[in-house]
Specification:
alpha/beta, 17-stranded mixed β-sheet
């Protein structure tokens, strides 16, 4: 790329030297061939590096904690058997995604913090595993839990502008949700006690059922659990966001 810039710059200088009196400049055959060669190289390079590639497949081993950061979108599919991670996208973006298991904590992140390095921004991660007990999510990427996630307890910490979507979650023990930032959360949860701390402008919408719902909410985001059957609700609210929940079959609202 540098050489083609030098060639074009030389042509531009020659044109300037020719003066305004002449509108014609001759480009040597050698320069023409060099430009053609550079353009052809760049075309082939782009087709290889930025074209769609086969998904990279990882077998990280067993894990209970999932940590996801940066702007990639992640889909988690509960499935029995050996955990498997598929990373898709162009060659360049796919190869920048790192998958590491550190003592039962699966970390998925980019090898670079410079989004400009990854031109396509089309990377997608699909995780197949029996389940998790802890999710730590940061950044603008979304995470979607398909099918039914089951377990004895679940803690979700989400920050940034990315959304958290859970189709179905059945937990025999406590569920703890800590959410900050502008990202939204939509989840169907069936659990014992559900603790929710929501800060920032993101909205939270819960469905399902719980013996008890404990809510601490601040900021401009709204909270709605009118489709979650809870026997007991404790709500502490501050900020401008709207809050509505269902307690013993009745939908109620809370204000600061």
């Amino acid at each position: 790329m540098k050489s083609i810039k030098i060639t074009i710059a030389a042509i531009a200088l020659a044109a300037a030297a020719a003066g305004a009196s002449s509108c014609y400049i001759r480009v040597s055959d050698e320069a023409k061939e060099k430009i053609k060669s550079e353009i052809s190289y760049r075309k082939v390079f782009s087709e290889v590096v930025y074209s769609e590639s086969e998904p990279a497949v990882f077998h990280p081993g067993e894990f209970n904690i999932l940590e996801v950061s940066n702007w990639m979108d992640v889909t988690f599919i509960p499935r029995e058997g050996e955990p498997e991670v598929l990373v898709s996208g162009t060659h360049r973006s796919r190869d920048e995604v790192k998958v590491e298991n550190e003592a039962g904590t699966l970390r998925i992140f980019f090898n670079t913090n410079d989004r400009g390095v990854i031109v396509a921004n089309d990377e997608k991660v699909t995780i197949y595993a029996p389940g998790i007990s802890v999710l730590n999510k940061k950044g603008s990427g979304d995470i979607h839990f398909g099918k039914t996630l089951r377990g004895q307890s679940l803690t979700i910490s989400a920050s940034g502008s990315g959304d958290v979507i859970m189709d179905e979650c059945e937990i025999s023990g406590p569920v703890t949700i800590n959410k900050t930032g502008s990202g939204d959360m939509r989840a169907t949860i069936r659990g014992d006690v559900v603790y929710v701390t929501a800060e920032g402008s993101g909205d939270v919408n819960l469905e399902g059922s719980a013996n008890e719902l404990i809510l601490y909410k601040s900021g401009s985001g709204s909270f709605y659990s009118g489709n979650m059957e809870a026997k007991k609700v404790t709500a502490s609210v501050s900020g401008s966001g709207e809050v509505a929940y269902k307690e013993n079959g009745k939908v109620k609202s809370a204000t600061k």
